[in-house]
Structure formats: C-alpha cells, structure tokens
Amino acid sequence: MEQYKGRIAILGSGNIGLSLAKGLVKSGYVQAGQICLTRRNASKLKTFEQQGFVVGSDNAAAVAAADIVVLAVLPQQLNLLLNEINPSVDAKKHLIISVASGVSCKDIRSKLNTEVQVVRAMPNTAIAIGQSMTCMATDNAATVHLEEVTRMFETVGSVVKINEDLMTSATALCACGIAFFLRAIRAASQGGVEIGFHADEALKMAVQTAKGAADLLLQMQSHPEQEIDKVTSPKGCTIAGLNEMEHNGFSSSLIKGIKLSAVKAGDLYTKE
Ligand SMILES: NC(=O)C1=CN([C@@H]2O[C@H](COP(=O)(O)OP(=O)(O)OC[C@H]3O[C@@H](n4cnc5c(N)ncnc54)[C@H](O)[C@@H]3O)[C@@H](O)[C@H]2O)C=CC1
Ligand SMILES: O=C(O)[C@@H]1CCC=N1
C-alpha cells in the first residue's frame, strides 16, 4: 500500500480521534510523525508523543501544518473549534473530514470563511484494530479527494459511501452499533455464568461465538436467518431459547434502540 505523503491534523483526540490515529499508523497509511493530535489538555497525550505523534493544544498551528484536518470533537464543542481554526483554513490546501455526529458538511462550511471541501465520515472504535465500518458522505468534495478519504478509511476497515441525509442512521447502526453488540456479548457471558462457567471463560466463549456468527455472514455472504435455520434443530434447545428471547422483545428492543439512537444522533448538534 502506498503511504500517504501529506500531514494529518486530528483535532479533538478523545476516543474516536485516538482510535483513528492508532489505526492509520498500524495500517501503514501514515507514520506517527505525520499525524498531529490536539486536545485541550495536551499533557494527556504524552504516551502518544512517546510513540512519535506530534501532540499539542494549538489547533490553528496544527491546521496550518496539515493538509487533511479531521474534526473529532463532540458536536457541542464543534463551533468553538471552528471559530478557532477559521483563520487558518485554506480551501486550496485543506480537506476537512468531520466525524462529528449530526453536523452537516454545509453546517461546517457555514462557520468557516471559505468554500473548503468537507467529507463526513462515520467510523466506529474498531478502527483502532482495522475493523471499522465507516460510512462516508460529501456534498462538495472532488472525486479525487473522496477517493483519498476512501483509501484512508479502507486501510482501517470497510467503507460504504452513502447519501448525506443517511449519516445519522449510519451513526446509530455502525458507530453506536459497536456498543450494542458489545452489550449483547456481555449479556451472553452473564447468561453463561448463570449456567455454570466462570466469568472469564464465559466471556471468552461468548466473544468467539459472536465472532464466528459475524464471520459466517461475511464469508458465506448469507442471511442471518439462513444460518439460524442450520442451528435450530426441531424441538431443540436453540429454538426454545431463541423464542423465549423474542417473547421478551429481543429483536424489538434492538430495533427500538437503533431508532432512538438515530433520532438522538441527529439532535446532538442542533440541540447543543
Ligand atoms: N466514540 C465513538 O465511537 C464515535 C464518535 N464519533 C464522533 O466523534 C466525536 C468525538 O467523540 P468521542 O471521541 O467519543 O469524544 P471524546 O470526548 O472522547 O473526545 C473529544 C475530544 O476532543 C477534545 N476537545 C474538545 N474541544 C477541543 C478543542 N477545542 N480543541 C482540541 N480538542 C478538543 C476533548 O478534550 C476530547 O479529548 C463526536 O462528535 C462523536 O459524535 C463518531 C463515531 C464514533
Ligand atoms: O454516543 C455518541 O454520541 C457517539 C456518536 C457515535 C458513537 N458515539
């Protein structure tokens, strides 16, 4: 894979910003020294500095030294950040990538004195290990830039390009989705403890079983119900457990949770 030659500023180095930075270096897309990480209290980035990243709290300086600028602060922190970097953003030089939920490309440009190109990307924390599902949208970025951003995120997982008005749905399904599946694994391991396993072995069993289920779908390109049919023996224990879960609202609660998350994702910026 060809390494990206430019410099990347990740403004707001919290959970997702740092996961992205780790993933990009691990994948070989860039070297740590090509990434500048900012957060308000830069002393919290010491371990990253030791790994070769450039760290600091001066967002304007980070932007001036970069060509790709990743906005990774909370939606309610974004306007302050945009005000701060506004004088340093140059539409001819910079490409902005925003991972902030519920903030449109147009919202971002409206706070900057320039028609800079903006791409929205919605990764999830599995980006740190190269397993993100990243959804991407833009309303003005040139194809060549969109291709570069796609290449960047493909080094750390799968990418799907979507219409911008589906970005909040993507947030719920993929970014929040990591937490939903993790909770399902946690619940399965708790069930495992009730039926006789020690917590550590129950968790290991639940994790590998979940991984097997996901890999079955990915590798066989099959539908979940097709794979479920292979597990549910007639009058067997799987269908008994599955139906009990459904009587208690298993699918329904996931669907309702995802719907609520999508609504909330759309409100995070406007209701700041
Ligand atoms: N956590 C996740 O799994 C995902 C989060 N997102 C989006 O990414 C954004 C960040 O989310 P998290 O990483 O979870 O939040 P976080 O709170 O962990 O990280 C935000 C970071 O930004 C820093 N910050 C705030 N204002 C700043 C400023 N003016 N200059 C420099 N740094 C500043 C904070 O100190 C903090 O370290 C949000 O907009 C969220 O919607 C998107 C996809 C997944
Ligand atoms: O919970 C949140 O608001 C962020 C956005 C997607 C994942 N975490």
TrEMBL record:
Q: Could you tell me which residue ranges the Pyrroline-5-carboxylate reductase dimerisation domain spans?
A: 164-265
GO MF terms listed in the record are: pyrroline-5-carboxylate reductase activity
Chief location category: cytoplasm
Instruction: Give me any GO biological process, just one.
Output: L-proline biosynthetic process
- Enzyme class comes to oxidoreductase
Please report the stretch or stretches of sequence annotated as the Pyrroline-5-carboxylate reductase catalytic N-terminal domain: 7-102
Q: Tell me the compartments it is located in.
A: Cytoplasm
Q: Which reaction does it catalyse?
A: L-proline + NAD(+) = (S)-1-pyrroline-5-carboxylate + NADH + 2 H(+); L-proline + NADP(+) = (S)-1-pyrroline-5-carboxylate + NADPH + 2 H(+)
Which Pfam family, any one, appears in the UniProt record? F420_oxidored
* Residues given in the record as NADP(+) binding sites: A72, V73, L74, P75
Q: What EC numbers are recorded for this enzyme?
A: 1.5.1.2
Family annotation (SUPFAM superfamilies): 6-phosphogluconate dehydrogenase C-terminal domain-like (SSF48179), NAD(P)-binding Rossmann-fold domains (SSF51735)
The positions annotated for binding NADPH are: N59
UniProt keyword list: Amino-acid biosynthesis, Cytoplasm, NADP, Oxidoreductase, Proline biosynthesis
What function does the entry list? Catalyzes the reduction of 1-pyrroline-5-carboxylate (PCA) to L-proline.
- Family indicated by similarity: Belongs to the pyrroline-5-carboxylate reductase family.
Task: Please name the HAMAP family in this protein's record.
Answer: P5C_reductase
Q: What is this protein called?
A: Pyrroline-5-carboxylate reductase
